[in-house]
Amino acid sequence: MISSEQKEFLNRAMNYCALAERCTQDVVKKLTEWGAPEEAIETVLEKLRLEKFLDDDRYANSYVADKWKLDQWGRAKIRNGLFQKGFGEQQIQQALETIDQDEYVVILDNVLARKRETIKTESPIQQMKKIISFGTSRGYEEDLIWEWLEKEGLNFDAGNAKDEG
Fold this sequence. Notes:
Blueprint: H1 4-19, H2 24-33, H3 38-50, H4 56-70, H5 75-84, H6 89-96, H7 101-118, H8 124-137, H9 142-151, H10 158-164
Helix pairs in contact: 1-3, 4-6, 5-6, 7-8, 8-9
């Protein structure tokens, strides 16, 4: 049986979860801020899962979709974000598998092309360094960034290396 105190925490948590998709860590943090005792937290989490207010797999998939399509983050940054939210490697990997590779590469192309336009007239080597740094900071894989650089004609061949001189 659930106590009246637990019902109050449950109602507050249901409202909190109804506003946006939440993960277990978010709800536990909020319940702790509200002063919920440990046994109430477990009871509330159980009820939230039972009533489908809380579903970590659904949250992880939503997080991946939002960060990838809206914020245009790469897999590494998304992985790190989910890890910080307390997700395990298997859950993270399953959520990342929802990313369509072809769309992922198109977004990477657009992100790097926009960045290249903002780089002032510097040598190709300096452009490459800035693009690689930017791309990895956004969580994109280095091999995909290098492929993009090659496609754009930026590489360490003899012609570009002379510019660094």
